[in-house]
């Protein structure tokens, strides 16, 4: 149940958050300077200890969850056997009370060329912090930590338990993974133990995100028969067969998907429809040989209301039609990752607390939105069975994975205020 704050309490928290601005920015810059690039997953232990040491010095009990080599091999198959370390900090009230868990992922996507600044410098320029992960989502980790610090600096004590976690491998997803998936599997986050979960991904500070679209990441391989390039009639060209399939999918399936719109607003609005894209193609070995295999990696995004089995059948039915129509057409279908769409109710104390906090800080009612991608909310809602799980954090969704990724300091501070007010009203303060 939301416990309304006294006006003087709310103002004290807001003032404390503003006073913490420089500290929060400095902490964020330190996070950005640790290049936790995934794949394969560099500097995870260093980043976990950077977060954990800060939490320890501010009174948290800190635990580092270091995966064994066998667990890394199983849960991070694309991670190059690099170490995986998650961190959890607990600030517990000895009296019984609710548990609010804030979570952010430490890993960032690769950089690429074209940056105007060092992507791991954390440069502060024109009111923005620049660097890979500034928005997605080291800004969220900084905001969640300093939101709780703002409550304490306001001279208030939370009447419940706060947990802060920094996890790995969100960017590489997986039906299971070494980060949030690991925390849920091991019971660190569990129904009956954890009351509220807030994942601090960037969906704009005036939105409360209640879910995400579903996804299938899969690979299709067509098989042919090799022959010399001068006598292609003696072979079966796997690349040409793949081209037939992609053409058929683009002509028949893609238009149908574009007519299926998500039942809840998606940020950005351009991602409101179901979709499929073919993003990697590999086939052939040399110019004068007919290729005997070709693979295509696809990304299928599902809107709320779609299910995985139907989405699979729509793809495989095109493959089967190609097999009937094209002599010698053979294929294999496999998946790396699949998740159903996620959506939670807006009629919960958690959403009410964040709605009131956004109204207090920004002066407007937040949008209840859906993420265009997928995120770690799926583990909490579907695997742990915790419905009171939302995504809220600083940063613009259009900044994620960009060249010159950045975060506005004003958004960082606004999210700190919102999270602090929401946490204080959910747990109660004295």
UniProtKB/TrEMBL annotation:
UniProt xrefs under InterPro entries: ArgE/DapE, Bact_exopeptidase_dim_dom, Peptidase_M20, Peptidase_M20_dimer, Peptidase_M20A
Lineage: superkingdom: Bacteria
The keyword Signal belongs to this UniProt entry's keyword annotation: no
GO molecular function: hydrolase activity; metal ion binding
Domain Peptidase M20 dimerisation residue range list: 211-321
Keywords, comma-separated and alphabetical: Cobalt, Hydrolase, Metal-binding, Zinc
Pfam families attached to this UniProt entry: M20_dimer, Peptidase_M20
Required cofactor names: Zn(2+); Co(2+)
Protein family (similarity comment): Belongs to the peptidase M20A family.
PANTHER family: ACETYLORNITHINE DEACETYLASE (PTHR43808)
Record protein name field: ArgE/DapE family deacylase
Organism: Ktedonosporobacter rubrisoli
